[in-house]
């Protein structure tokens, strides 16, 4: 009987030891749920605000139209300088547009859907956008007539982009988007000078 009692006592000791461990394990599992919430927050991407989203929604179709304008130049212009700057505009703005789309996806915001020549129904504040009539006219012109209208259109287009970018720099929160906006200001202000010189020449 003494041996039986000893076995029972030992059994109670083991059970008593297991219960605190089980309790700790349960509490640990509840504690491990906190990072899931943090991960969900992280999945929303780096810090950003409504100004960043608005800028991207407006600038993506704006860039799309600049690329469409640049695509009109080969075969219509005979000026090698116009052809060169058009190629540079497309080469600069294509990766910027891709980067802005990627940032919006990180923020879990759908990038805007744009038409083949730019423009979007998601925003009505795209400054400097070329209207459909001018886009259609450009397609009918060649030589000096084309160059003149194209240069005027692109200067206005760039001026709109610079104005939009300066608003983003002033009010945006995303450091990546603000860096993109700053690059737009620097690049396109320099191109405005070149475009204006070509128009005068």
Give a structural overview.
Helix 3 packs antiparallel against helix 4 (80-106), helix 3 (50-72) packs antiparallel against helix 6 (143-171) and helix 4 runs antiparallel to helix 7. Mean pLDDT is 81; it is low at 1-41. The protein has helices spanning 2-31, 34-42, 50-72, 80-106, 132-138, 143-171, 175-200. The longest helix is centred in the N-terminal third of the chain and has 30 residues, at 2-31. It is mainly α and 201 residues long. It has 2 domains: 2-41; 46-200, Ferritin, core subunit, four-helix bundle (Ferritin), CATH 1.20.1260.10. The chain contains 7 helices and no strands.
Give structural attributes.
201 residues, mainly alpha, Ferritin, 2 domains, 7 helices, 75% helix, elongated
- Second CATH tier, the architecture of the largest domain: Up-down Bundle
The share of residues in extended strands comes to under 5%
Helix tally equals 7
Query: For the residues shown, what is the average pLDDT?
Result: 81
**Count of strand segments:** 0
The count of domains is: 2
Specify the CATH class of the largest domain: Mainly Alpha
Enter the CATH topology name of the largest domain. Answer: Ferritin
Please summarize the sheet with the most strands.
none
Helix content: over 70%
Classify the secondary structure makeup into a structural class. Answer: mainly alpha
What general form does the structure show?
elongated
Order of helices and strands: HHHHHHH
CATH homologous superfamily placement of the largest domain: Ferritin, core subunit, four-helix bundle
Distance between the termini: 115 Å
Low-pLDDT runs of 5+ residues are 1-41
Oligomer category? single chain
**Rg value:** 30 Å
């Amino acid at each position: 009987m003494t041996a039986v009692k000893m076995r029972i006592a030992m059994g109670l000791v083991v059970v008593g030891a297991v219960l605190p461990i089980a309790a700790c394990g349960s509490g640990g599992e509840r504690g491990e749920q906190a990072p899931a919430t943090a991960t969900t927050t992280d999945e929303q991407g780096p810090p950003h605000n409504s100004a960043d989203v608005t800028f991207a929604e407006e600038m993506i179709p704006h860039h799309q139209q600049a690329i469409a304008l640049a695509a009109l130049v080969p075969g219509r212009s005979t000026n090698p300088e116009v052809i060169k700057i058009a190629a540079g505009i497309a080469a600069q703005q294509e990766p910027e547009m891709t980067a802005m789309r990627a940032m919006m996806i990180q923020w879990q915001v759908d990038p805007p859907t744009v038409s083949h020549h730019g423009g979007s129904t998601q925003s009505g504040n795209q400054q400097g956008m070329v209207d459909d009539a001018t886009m259609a006219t450009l397609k009918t012109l060649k030589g000096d007539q084309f160059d003149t209208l194209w240069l005027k259109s692109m200067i206005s287009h760039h001026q709109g982009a610079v104005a939009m970018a300066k608003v983003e720099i002033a009010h945006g929160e995303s450091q990546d988007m603000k860096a993109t906006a700053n690059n737009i200001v620097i690049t396109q202000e320099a191109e405005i000078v070149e475009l204006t010189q070509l128009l005068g020449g």
